[in-house]
Amino acid sequence: MIFPKEVEVIEVGPRDGLQNEPNLIPLEKKKKLIKMLSEAGFSRIETASFVHPKWVPQMANSEEMAEYSRELAITYLALTPNQKALERAIAVQAPQIAVFIGATETFNRKNINRSIDQSLEECKDLFERAKKANLWIRGYVSMAFSCPYEGEVAFEKVRYVCDELIRLGADEISIGDTTGKANPKAVYERFSRLRDLYPHTTFVAHFHDTEKMALANVVAAMQAGITKFDSSIGGLGGCPYSPGATGNVATEELVHMLEQMGCSTNLDLHKLREASRFAKTLSSRIQ
Amino acid sequence: MIFPKEVEVIEVGPRDGLQNEPNLIPLEKKKKLIKMLSEAGFSRIETASFVHPKWVPQMANSEEMAEYSRELAITYLALTPNQKALERAIAVQAPQIAVFIGATETFNRKNINRSIDQSLEECKDLFERAKKANLWIRGYVSMAFSCPYEGEVAFEKVRYVCDELIRLGADEISIGDTTGKANPKAVYERFSRLRDLYPHTTFVAHFHDTEKMALANVVAAMQAGITKFDSSIGGLGGCPYSPGATGNVATEELVHMLEQMGCSTNLDLHKLREASRFAKTLSSRIQ
Question: What does CATH list as the number for B8-282?
């Protein structure tokens, strides 16, 4: 088995974790959270989303979050799903941007009211402009294992989106098990195929712990050569309307396992646990 | 990666899971639990413990449980840590017996007030007599990764106990991560070494989910050739005095993952989930 010496954990809690939180969280508390995360040693944190606040009110103060991230010297990721969002990211000189594309037509249409090809067309202009502004680009592929509308997702659908994102110039692709239904065998097979198809592309694994398999999936992804994982402090995230559903794999649990296995993360587990306790006070879903 | 076509899951909830339950559970409820488990398709269930009821009052009605297990045609395991216990097992013609030995001197002394060598000496007579009565023997090695008194446990300590149990004629050895602190790397390494040292011995992996790594550990153990796993319905077990501490890996979560990976267990997941809901009503620890 492969247990890499070093692993990068990318914290997505302040954006992916908090965006669905129904209660508006005061800016000062969000700032405190990313300060705690920064002090725990993260090199990258997703802290902003330039989606229109009409759609995601929780992220309305992303300019302030971006500014504060810069103050803390965090290399932050900012979600920029369209040209308007990209303009805001360029205005604050965000170092890294991220776009989302669903692997299934139904999800993509329900989520952003566009076909996959329309989304990719939009990415083309967006990536060109982002590259001119020297922004580094992450592409998220959502529903890369199963989809709430279409069920199990064929690998070819994931491959199609990856093909296009890579062709358009994405610097990194995060493969998301958005429904939390991936199992270690599927993870190993899917990431092995991606590695063989795109040996020069950096892939990140993004797992949800809905069915308790997230850490097992991390170990399986490692066997396919993955060394970068997204996670969310305290397990923030998931759907606020289904109290039992868990969110992203919890950063502190992931880091604990990695460190126990001798995979260095350069993160301070004690500080992560403190940050987790604080993060949970911001969530209406986690007790 | 190795994903075996078939896996045996051995249910230990009715004994290992319930024995520490502080409230006495009526016999009828325990019978109902093993009936539900039997109907879910288990070939083996640990249903009895012939430890003196003074020490484990919860298991006082083990003769009745043994009798009922026979009625249900369950191949049951009965814990028989000493000659008196073995006599009771022989009297009811238990098909399979089990003994426990801690891998660390301190745990063994605190748990059963004997040195490891004294325990092994006792096993010698016990195994001889059990074999004459045609009983099949499982040896549990507890604290095979870490110990609450001695911390991390050296592999040589586990090896020593395995050596002796195998020499004395154990038919199967269950390696227990009793504290729930094992990680996938340690699991892979330890089971690989055991397989290389004892290629003809059947090993079972017995994980607790204390630190959320149980399912990841199952996947790691598979890579070392393990195809038998203990689990406890509803995650019963653990210490009743530390409410946060989880017990054995939950059978329904284990079986769900295995089936998702195409590893057949011959168990009915729907019935397991029903049994899990019932099991949780018996526990003062699980909500």
Answer: 3.20.20.70
